[in-house]
């Protein structure tokens, strides 16, 4: 018997917001390590809008900008605290973890950090 589809949580739920920070942080790190550039807050907010649109969800621009700023701070903190090799590994693990079938201790700890960021902001 097929598994029934899971309900998509609302865009403004804590889990969705943490997942958006996680995904955008992974994207920011990948772009930084590949091209040596950081996404702007507006670019990050646009990424979030695109991702949410795929599941027919939305968030106000102010919320998307806040999540973008949080992911920017986290990505820069990671890049500033790790060697290039460790940063590349972290970015790769985070990008791989965007696949729900991929399991990673590092990705779980990064998702926990994203949830903590939401709790403190």
Taken as a percent bin, the fraction of beta residues is under 5%
CA distance, first residue to last residue: 43 Å
Number of domains: 1
Mean pLDDT: 92
Number of alpha- plus pi-helical segments: 5
Give helix % range.
over 70%
The global form is globular
Which stretches of 5+ consecutive residues score pLDDT under 50?
Answer: none
- Give the ordered list of helices and strands: HHHHH
The biggest sheet, with number of strands, parallel, antiparallel or mixed sense and barrel status, is:
none
Strand count: 0
Structural class: mainly alpha
- Our Rg estimate from Cα atoms comes to 14 Å
Characterization of the model:
26% of the residues are buried. By secondary structure, this protein is mainly α. The mean pLDDT is 92. Helix content is 71%, strand content 0%. It has 5 helices and no strands.
Task: Provide keyphrases for this structure.
121 residues
Task: Give the arrangement of secondary structure elements.
Blueprint: H1 14-35, H2 41-54, H3 61-81, H4 84-96, H5 105-120
Helix pairs in contact: 1-3, 1-4, 1-5, 2-3
Briefly characterize the structure:
By secondary structure, this protein is mostly helical. Helix content is 71%, strand content 0%.
